[in-house]
């Protein structure tokens, strides 16, 4: 083959794209109900936006950035995740200003890019859907963010969801924990992976997230953040749990969970699901948390924030075909016999579509039998057949393709007649 798609990318073809549209429409509908508006930011930004936001010890920034110098010698990166661009837009457009209602709630969808080794479930261009809310530090908002994520997935028919929950506490708690981790890991320094040696210097919390087998053994006995939360952080975490109890949310505290961003604090969470599509292994479908320092980090005023992101490709693997309503079913397939009908069909189709019907015809001058076969293959509800006689007598033959029933109606009033038949 002459041309192939770039490594790690996918074509989303008709047949599959309907599924994507459905997921996106459920996202829009669910998020709007909670007053999240859609935000669309560029798919590329200054490299520094991501470096600042994810932190330079993150896997994303240290290994996976899809970055390049443009013709003006600017250091550009394709976005690896959604939050950084949204925060940049929040600061640049002064969305923290008094004319904007707080909390400022947005959602996004779109392609993300990471230079990873392509493998099952891991691409270089993939898609995320996410939400962010700025300007409130309230634990009730944390509960809402978790709820809106659950409602979204529930509406898509995803069952057996479990929320893994943790708290990273406030800056004071994190500083205490930071020190405890350094004290714990330092004696193991020589055994740690090279990445984790660097993390120990720069951001020891990240060692907890290491995928290295040796690191994992050492991590197993590391101190727990929950022992280092100060009273205010502990109280806040317990209060959030009581809110989730009230909402009957199925959650589990996971004190070993840390998240990629450097600026997470207090609430962090992941939604876990066990499904045959992933060999019944538990996988993360959605992940998020509170990032109260991030807006400041990107040059804005001190502003609390919380959000989540989810990988759409992974979500698609969990969707069951029967949970996806079929879309754009064909109402009418116009069958024409002869040149005159062929000419008339242009106007007839146009009128049907104006009246709201999903309608199509054969453009290949095929025989009537072949046209009916196509109508069948397209699952058309009705065929409307016209030929010379029909044109002369102002009639059209309407056939209900499911029952085989046929009626002759006025061609002039075809759209209205069809509506009558529809009932
Ligand atoms: P992992 O530990 O699997 O690398 P991550 O911590 O990099 O995950 P996040 O940055 O939290 O993942 O991204 C959120 C979601 O985006 C993931 O749960 C996953 O569904 C999806 N995702 C991340 N990277 C890729 C990729 N390269 N291809 C497809 N989906 C991805
Ligand atoms: Mg990753």
Automatic annotation (TrEMBL):
The gene is hisS. Belongs to the class-II aminoacyl-tRNA synthetase family. One of its GO terms (biological process) is histidyl-tRNA aminoacylation. It comes from the Bacteria. The keyword Repeat does not apply. It is an enzyme of class 6 (ligase). L-histidine binds at residues 81-83, 114, 128, 132, 259, 263-264. Its EC number is 6.1.1.21. Pfam families: HGTP_anticodon (PF03129), tRNA-synt_His (PF13393). Homodimer. GO terms for cellular component: cytoplasm. It is found in: Cytoplasm. This is Histidine--tRNA ligase. Keywords: Aminoacyl-tRNA synthetase, ATP-binding, Cytoplasm, Ligase, Nucleotide-binding, Protein biosynthesis. It comes from Companilactobacillus bobalius DSM 19674. SUPFAM superfamilies: Class II aaRS ABD-related, Class II aaRS and biotin synthetases. Its main location: cytoplasm. Coiled coil: none annotated. One of its GO terms (molecular function) is histidine-tRNA ligase activity.
